[in-house]
Structure formats: C-alpha cells, structure tokens
Amino acid sequence: MTSLITRHLLNGLITLFLIVSLTFFLLRIMPGGPFDQERQLPPAIMANMNARFGLDKPLHEQYFSYLAHVVRGDLGPSYKYMTRSVNDIVAQGALVSFELGAAAVFMGTLAGVAMALLAAWATGTGTRSGLLLDGLFSLLGVSALSMPSFIFGAFMVLIFATWLNWLPAARLETPAHAILPVLTLSMVPFAYSFLLVRNALNTISHATFIQIKHAYGLNPWRVLAKHALKNALIPLLSIMAPLTAALVTGSFAVELIFAVPG
Fold first, then answer.
1. 115 with 183, same domain?
2. Which of 55, 86, 100, 137 is most buried, most CB within 10 Å of its CB?
3. Does residue 262 lie in a domain region?
4. How many domains, the chain?
5. At 147, which CATH number?
6. How many CB atoms sit inside 10 A of residue 109's CB?
7. Are residues 62 and 180 in the same domain?
8. Is position 122 within any domain?
9. What is the pLDDT tens value at each position of the chain, 262 positions in all?
10. What is d(CA 225, CA 202) in angstroms, rounded to the nearest whole number?
C-alpha cells in the first residue's frame, strides 16, 4: 500500500512539473509579450518594464526563478494589475467560485437524490402513470447531463431575467444574484446524482434483503428511503470529490455569462 501511494505521489509530482514547465515555455515561445499593446510603448519604457519583471534575463534564469517561486507558492506579480500579485487575484476570485460551486453541489445532489427516490417509488407502483413519471425524470436527467452549462445559463438569463424579470442577470451583489449561477452549475451534480442513484436503486430493489422487507409488509417508500438508499448512495460518493473539484475550479464559462467575479 505504501509503495502504491508513493508511486501515485511521484506520478502526480512529475505531471505537475511537466505542466508547469510546459506552461512557462509556451508563454515564452508564443509571439508577442505581456506588455504589447495596439499602441507600441517607447523602447525605453518597454526595457524598464522587462527589467522590472525579470524578462530581460536569459531564458534559463527566468525558468529556474519561476520554478523556485512556484515551489514556494508564489505565482509572482500580475502583468495586467501591476500593483497586485497573482496570489491576491486568485484568492479573491477563488472564494466566490468555491461558494458558488459548493452551493451548486449541495443543491444539485439533494435534488437528484430526492428525484431518484421518487422515480424508483413511482416505478415500484407498477402503474402506467408511475412508469411515465419515471420516464420523464430520466429524460430530464439525461438532458441536464447532455446540455452544456453555458447554454443552460443563457436560457436561464433569457427566461428569468429578460422575459419574466424575476431575477437579476449579472453581478453578485445580493443573494438573489446567486440564484441563477447556482441553478446553472447545479445541473451537472443533479444529473449525475439522479442517474447514478436511480440505477443503483433499480438494481438494489431486486436484492433479497429488499424483497424480504416487502414480504414483511413494510411501506414501499420506507423500504426505499431507509434500507435501499444507503446502499444506492455508494456509487454517488465515489464521484463526489472529483465532481466538487471540477465545479469549483471549472465554472469559468458560467461565471463569465453572469459576470460573476470568480
């Protein structure tokens, strides 16, 4: 076990080193520079700017200095906001992204699990209306998983902000401003939660211990919610960590649509 963990850690460190190095050299190889503008700066000012940020040094010196700062967790100064560091800018936006992502994961997962329970119960009734309800929920889950977040977000703005004028469309000044971004981001965890838990409940409902509960005459809803659900949540728990990380760090498109400073 120790050797396995060590091997994974080494692989992760090597991958991180390659990504950092590739990022550095790609930025240096690409044409142009951080201070290039439509209106060319005078050569003297350009030289002073390059000297201030160490861009006039040999490439290998820049590279090793960059690696040393990254190891210390220092991402250096911002080329755009020169009075601020990259760490300050990232920290300011990361908190907003974390709050939106965490709220989206919580709400989406809760709604997905609740709807999966309802769909499994509807199927268990054996009625035509129950099967139809399960089919509609499944269609909703697949649609939520298939539709890109930025398209869903654009529809949310069009419907609730433009047509109905119920909610604000942009910025993040009041709790009401967070409703549409959180709703948009929650579609992915909702879809995963519903589909995984629904399929797991469908499998577990045929298990022997569940059939015994039904034979005892227990309420079908109670059997699902109390006995089947805790086993059906296992597949969901296995993806919660990467799903949360992906939402917290990958909500750029949604934040751009709603002009959220994340």
1. yes
2. 100
3. no
4. 2
5. 1.10.3720.10
6. 22
7. no
8. yes
9. 577 678 878 887 888 888 888 888 887 777 666 666 656 767 776 777 777 777 777 877 888 888 888 888 777 777 666 667 777 777 777 777 788 888 888 899 999 999 988 888 877 766 777 788 878 888 888 888 888 888 888 888 888 888 888 888 777 777 778 888 888 888 888 988 898 888 888 887 777 777 777 667 677 777 777 777 788 888 888 787 777 776 666 577 777 777 776 6
10. 13
CA distances from 205 to 80, 91, 112 (A): 58, 46, 18
One domain for residues 67 and 93? no
**105/28 same-domain check:** no
Residue 199 identity? N
131 inside domain: yes
Query: Residue written as tokens 């069009």?
Result: 158
Domain that holds residue 52: 2-74
Largest distance between two CA atoms of the chain:
88
- In terms of phi and psi (left: phi > 0; alpha: psi -120 to 50; beta: otherwise), the region of 73 is left
